[in-house]
Specification:
Layout: E1 4-5, E2 9-16, H1 26-31, E3 63-71, H2 77-86, E4 91-95, H3 104-112, E5 116-119, H4 130-144, E6 150-151, H5 160-168, E7 172-173, E8 178-179, H6 188-198, E9 204-208, H7 214-229, E10 233-234, H8 237-240, E11 244-249
Parallel strand pairs: 3-4, 3-9, 3-10, 4-5, 6-7, 8-9
Antiparallel strand pairs: 1-2, 2-11
Helix pairs in contact: 2-7, 6-7
The structure holds zinc ion (ZN).
Zinc ion is lined by residues 69-70, 120, 124, 154.
Length: 250
């Protein structure tokens, strides 16, 4: 049974998002599933793929979402997760399907820490299609029991094909409004000032854990403290957008 791990532990994931789409109340749908039997895998919600890309949350509350793309990475993700946990910040990891194998425990650790996992295509092509997105969802589901609600297109590129693929896989497309530019390796101070200085209420901040990103890891504690000093709190992207994200595993 693929959702049973050693020690007969069972992961159960409930995910629900509500982006205020007409006639759909996904949060209520999740709340109505309180009687899910232990040991069953149940995924609810995640039907919010409207095709319209979102770049930020509401500007009315001092909450921001840290996002990390291109992982999971055995080199950088554990360090990032440990910093997030130490400084009580949550984040969203947009992962590539090709990096799932061998990182299953790490991915369950991400979710168990209260951080979210989203889909970043299988192998990072420009303009991925339905099969790419569906295959990535499948890999993430098999590893964690959790079905992503969110999709971040590689390079932030969205065309009609990508929009249809996201809709067919019930994924909400998430871009960003603050780019730390950590993928350009500009140095810790610049990554810090990009992320902290450009953030506004509701910002979705782009960073990376996959690839070669030692500067990101070095900058992260200062970024979290800097944003906290500006009065910001942290949320997963789903929570930032007013949705509900629940993972129960042990
Ligand atoms: Zn990427």
């Amino acid at each position: 049974m693929k959702f049973t791990r050693s020690g007969a532990c069972v992961a159960m994931a409930l995910a629900a998002i509500g982006f205020g789409g007409p006639g759909v109340d996904r949060a209520s749908s999740a709340a109505g599933n309180g009687g899910t039997p232990v040991g069953a895998r149940q995924v609810v919600g995640c039907t919010g793929g409207s095709g319209a890309a979102i770049t930020s949350g509401p500007r009315s509350r001092p909450v921001v979402a840290l996002t990390f793309d291109d992982g999971p990475s055995t080199t950088y993700t554990p360090a990032i997760l440990s910093i997030l946990n130490r400084l009580h910040a949550s984040a969203t990891f947009f992962e590539e399907g090709r990096h799932v194998a061998g990182n299953e425990a790490l991915m369950r650790q991400i979710l168990a820490s209260g951080d979210e996992i989203g889909n970043h295509s299988f192998d990072h092509p420009r303009f991925p299609g339905y099969r790419e997105l569906a295959a990535t969802n499948r890999r993430i589901e098999e590893a964690t029991g959790f079905t992503p609600c969110l999709f971040r297109p590689p390079y932030g590129l969205v065309d009609a094909k990508v929009a249809v693929a996201a809709q067919r896989t019930h994924l909400q497309t998430i871009l960003w409004d603050v780019d730390s530019r950590d993928d350009k390796h500009p140095g810790v101070a610049t990554i810090h000032s990009n992320a902290v200085g450009l953030a506004q209420p509701g910002s979705i901040i782009l960073m990376h854990d996959g690839g070669h990103h030692p500067q990101t890891v070095a900058a992260l504690p200062g970024i979290i403290r800097g944003l906290q000093a500006r009065g910001f709190r942290f949320a997963t992207v789903t929570a930032l957008l007013g949705g509900r994200f629940v993972y129960r595993g042990h």
